[in-house]
């Protein structure tokens, strides 16, 4: 099992390139950056468990700008979106950004995708939350057409275009791995419909490990599983390893280098303890 980190690349914390270089130097296999274009000030959609939303949610750099900085600062590290809010993005532009980043990184990009949780944020981008999963599906399928075809067309309910040229194509063929985020009741169907991997947040008692078996039973092709929000707990890491998880990643606090290093050290101690227990 590989290990990585997640990070909110905020403008008032350790810069994306410096963070990525540190992660690579310390042996992490991947870094995933969070995305929010903005956060509505209304705050009508509650945050997890009714807690106050941390300010890092509305202080992040643009996702693909931050990922490009991370890719430019490293040579081996996988760089990924954790997650890209595809329902808030034009699919033609996003397909171009994905392909450009995959080219500039030498084929090191991993495309974590999802619909998000903040309904006002979705509406501000013109997406009706009631149809967000259908929008997500069509935009992913449209981008796959753009990446694969010399002259791409797509005709759906929410995405429609006729005969376009878009280059470069991604280095990874037919496209970078698509990691489908989420833990809702329909997420496994979405993974099977358009994903290469399931990319859930780990929640204690949330059934992620149990649902991996359900995914394997349903799948007629190979599906990877990666986990975000993994705790710094070697016992949990062992359970994820035994369940066949390919990579476990932990969110590292956004802040100056000293804060980041403390978060990394805690994660590294858990990985070392896990490895000593029979990884």
From TrEMBL:
Protein name (Swiss-Prot/TrEMBL): LLM class F420-dependent oxidoreductase
Pfam families in the record: Bac_luciferase
Signal peptide residues on this chain, from the entry's feature table: none
Keyword Oxidoreductase among record annotations: yes
GO BP, sorted A to Z: alkanesulfonate catabolic process
This protein's record includes keyword Phosphoprotein: no
Start and end residues of each Luciferase-like domain: 18-224
PANTHER family named among the record's database cross-references: ALKANESULFONATE MONOOXYGENASE, ALKANESULFONATE MONOOXYGENASE-RELATED
Alphabetized UniProt keyword annotations: Flavoprotein, FMN, Monooxygenase, Oxidoreductase
GO molecular function, one term: alkanesulfonate monooxygenase activity
